[in-house]
Structures are given as C-alpha cells and as structure tokens.
C-alpha cells in the first residue's frame, strides 16, 4: 500500500511519526507492506514551496492508496493573503473526499476531564458524518472593500451520496440518523431535508429524525447520548463536530476519515489542530493520529483487523496510565506511540 | 408608551400575559402608562389571517414603541410551504432590528440543573450580540428539484453598526469582545474581521479577540467564563446563542432584545420556543418573557429603573423557591408572574 504522509505544521510531524510507528507495527503483524512518501502541506509548504499545497503533492495524493495527515495552521499566516488551510481545502477538493467521518465517544478512563456533568458525559457515543466538498466552503465568493458574499450550493447528488454514507454507518451502529439542517430558513437545507428523506426509504431499518442546527447545538450539550449518527452539511458539520469533540474531555483522542468515491484515496487526520505552543517539545498527544491510522486501515485499505488491533492497543495503553500532559499524565509522544506499538505487535 | 403584543403560538400567549402583568406593575410603580395592542403572528396568524404576519401587523409594529413577542412555531406547519417562522423574519426585516442581544448568565439557585460540571458552569456570564438582518437569512435563494443555493451577503455598514452595539455593550460589562467568524474559509468573514478591527480602534478601552466559529463552539462548552461579549453574524449567532442558552441549565430564564436604529421599535422576546407539548396547561416558565419585558424597559423605552426592579423581582421570586416544573418546582405560570409583580410593586 502506498501511503502519502503530510505531517504539516506544529505538532503534525511528531504525531504523524508516532502514527507511522504504530502503522508499521500493525503492518508487520498482519503481513502488509506500507510504502511511504512524505510531502509538505500548510505553512510548511508555503515556506518551502510558495503555496499551501503544490500541484505535485496533489498529484501524488491522487496516486496514493491513502493520505495520513498531521495538522495544518500557523499563527504566522493568520489574516494573510495565503492561508495554510487553503492547502487542506485544495486536497479535499482534489481527492473528492465528500464524507468526513468523526467518531466521538466517552473514554471511561478519562471521564473526569469532560466539561459535562458525570451523568451527561458518559452517554457520548456518536459519529458525525459531515459533507466536506460542498456548501459555502466551495461556492462562489466575492470579496470587496465594501461588500462580500459567499454562495452555498448543494445538488441532489451531493446530498444523496453523503446521506448514504451516514445510513450505511448507522446500520453498523445503533441504527439512528439525525440529519441536521436549517430548513426553516435555508433553501439548501430544504433540498437537504427532502433528499435525505428519500434516501431513508432505502434504509427502513434505520430511524431518521430531522433536527434544526440550533437545536442540535443545544442537544449536544444537554443530552449528547440521544445521538447515534449525525449527518450534516459542510459548515454546520465544522461547528458541530468541534462542539462534539470537546465533550469526552480531550480532543487529543479523536481521529477522522475523509472519504470519496470507492477506490479513491481517503484523508486520515486527527481532529486537533497544529498546537504551535507545544510543537517540537515531544509532549503532543499522538493517540488521535494513531487512531486516524486505524481508520486508514479500516476505511482506506480495507484491513479492519489491523484497525482493531490499533484501537485495542490505544485502549490498553491509556488504561495502563500511559497519558500525555493534556490527559493529566507525564508521558511523551514517543513513549505513548511505543506503548501502543508494543501492544499491536 | 405603545406596546404591541404578539403572543404567537404554543405557550406564547401564557408567557406574554405573565410579562404584561409584571410590566403593568412596573409601570404603576414608576408612573408610566403602557397602552397595549394585541395582534397575531406565526401559526396563529396563518390560521386566522392566511399569512404568518399580516401587512397591517407589520405596519402597527412600526408605529409602536416596542414589540413584546411570545413564541412562534407549530409542528402542524413543519415542512409546509407557509412557515410560522417567516412571520418573525418579516417582522425583523420590517423593523430593521439588526442587533440581537442575548445575555446568558449562570443562576446560582439553579446551578444544579446545568449540563456542565460545577466548576465550569459557574463562570457563565456573557452577552451574545448577533447580527439579525443580514447573511444567509436574507440573501438570494434558489430552490429547485435538483439544486438549491443560499447567498450570504454582508456590507461594511451592516458589520459596522452591529459591531458598535457590541463594543458599547462591552463598556458596560467586563470590557471584552470576542468576534466570531470563519475568516479562514468565508469571504463575508474576512470582511467581518476587517471591519470589526477598524471599529475596535474607536474603543481602545475594550479588548478585542477574533475567534473562529468552530473554536468558539468548543470554548463555549469547555470554558464559557472566558467570554464577555460575543459578536457574530446571523447564522453563527443562531447556533452559538442556542448552544450558550443551555449552559445555565434552563432556557426558561433567558430573554432577548432585537434592536434597530435609535428611535425605531425593538422586539423583545424569550429565547425559548413555543413548547407545544405544555401549551395551555398553565405551567410554562414565564421568567424569560418577564425578563424580556425588563429588556424592553431598558433598551426600548429608556426606563432602566423599571428594568432593574423587574430583574430584582425575578431574582427574589426564584430565590424564594417560586419555580415552575422545568426548574424542578411546582409553581404555575400565573403564580410565578404574581410573585414577581408583588415584588415589583
Ligand atoms: C482548517 C479548516 C479549513 C477546517 C475546516 O473548516 O474544514 C478545519 O476546521 C476542519 O474542521 O477540518
Ligand atoms: C425561528 C427561527 C427563524 C429563528 C432564527 O433562526 O433566527 C430562531 O431560531 C431564533 O434564533 O430566533
């Protein structure tokens, strides 16, 4: 399997190195061969190549079996003309990764660090399926001194394909989809609601509810346990998935997968950012990147057994108290990676 | 003062009657005369008048000194062609109420019902200033079978005037404004960020920070105490203000004011919805509507002393244990209104 590594900025290189260490252990155990290529994205690419992602990197990504990404973003470029984040958006568009999957679940060993009351926090076990290549992110923009505009567009086909991903995922979980929109105000949301309702007819075994985005933002805090799969459009997904990400207490544990059409390479990356304040110190929490590698084996390379071995390895390492500072421990990035790799092997 | 009452749907009529009872007590105490007119909005207006708000009602609203609104929305019209919510949007546009103010603060007597851990919940004391007449709510829409779009537009003037409201409010509070946008993706957000930064120069005594909307959605849950005034555009404000609204534990306590140019009538309404499940039972929590009447005295009629008397009256009634079922008590709507009115008188 060819894996393109895009470590990116801040703590990206450290956590990607950790994920690679664990992926290699899993590959060895299950008799797989991973061939890596490493390239730049984000601020690192702006500095060395003059653009947040080069054409060549996009081309190589398209030829890979999967892309393992670290983090993108650097305060140096805040408010500038060239934004590191543009590299990530270009990569998503190039690979057509229309479905972003973000599982969020309470981790019993870490429940003390949740901002929610104990009774509320424990119920969190949800999957956000966020549309990733449409909406206001990629619509026409106008930007003047006096006036600016963003156009959000959705087509029936765009809604349908991501809805199918959500319904399929619900089948492997608790069989419920909450589709989030703002149908009382937005035209795109009314199309969204109609098409999701039509797709639902093909999944009579899955229960569908429609939830307004403002109500969803409330329910996530008051009663996150009511959600199984949350399906939503790009911008709402950006907001709700970050809101959901803090519920278990540490973002440092959350992986993501961005998937396109079958056969095209997915992007696997931790949900956390580049955390420039702790970059290079060897203390970054690598579990989210490691769990992203697990998602890569499952969704990108079709090797669920390797994914499960990694996930069990992380659980065991955490339960054994191998915790980085953000989790209240004193383990370093490499130590945590080592602890998981040993268990995977 | 001429006050237009728009009770609307569900529990709206009950809580508006309660707010009127208290407003009358405040008027009597401070020697003011309130003249009421009552008209329909929302589902009630669709049923009786064929539209969610009539032209005549919009005209009367424009002639009033303030509009006191209950709630809008009825499941009967969910997904229909004519939506009760359209009445509210038309009213906002007619009156040009571009600034929606939503104060959210922890209520010590009710802290047990917050979904947040004790240490986190207590710090909540923030004011959301939401732009209310621009953005994707009022931009051009296209709605077809195969494709739909929403255009979000902001002009410099629209951003500037609502930013001034936020900076002025911060001066009377803890002197901090967090402006929330998605400047790494949206053109409107980049205009927003630029103009807010320019307005900030006129307020050297107020500290400004720019926060991305996804980060803001996280911080609201993990560390709400870091926020004083949150300034944001229409759609982000819809989502974040509902997320913030559940932090203190009960939405039944939260008022709002929607203000336009000086001299034009504002809209004062509780943040909660029409709650059709408990409508007509006499158990709806009237405090949010009563506190909205207080905001009406302060921001709409220029009588802060009446506002304060009402606010102290609500605090005292709550502290005395006069709690509706949603707050864990067994008081009815009228009883709670009576308890406040007595204290105000
Ligand atoms: C970096 C940024 C452009 C990106 C987004 O908004 O999609 C990030 O917030 C995410 O959620 O992956
Ligand atoms: C009823 C609806 C149109 C409205 C909005 O989205 O503005 C409501 O959610 C609000 O926040 O006042």
From TrEMBL, chains A, B:
Residues the record marks as site: Important for catalysis: 137, 182
Cofactor(s) of this protein: Mn(2+); Mg(2+)
Listed GO MF terms: 3-isopropylmalate dehydrogenase activity; magnesium ion binding; NAD binding
Annotated GO CC locations: cytosol
Cell compartment(s), UniProt: Cytoplasm
Binding note for cofactor: Binds 1 Mg(2+) or Mn(2+) ion per subunit.
GO BP, one annotated term: L-leucine biosynthetic process
Pfam families, per database record: Iso_dh
Oligomer status and interactors: Homodimer.
Task performed by this protein: Catalyzes the oxidation of 3-carboxy-2-hydroxy-4-methylpentanoate (3-isopropylmalate) to 3-carboxy-4-methyl-2-oxopentanoate. The product decarboxylates to 4-methyl-2 oxopentanoate.
Family: Belongs to the isocitrate and isopropylmalate dehydrogenases family. LeuB type 1 subfamily.
Protein name: 3-isopropylmalate dehydrogenase
Organism this protein belongs to: Rubrobacter xylanophilus (strain DSM 9941 / JCM 11954 / NBRC 16129 / PRD-1)
Source lineage: Bacteria, Bacillati, Actinomycetota, Rubrobacteria, Rubrobacterales
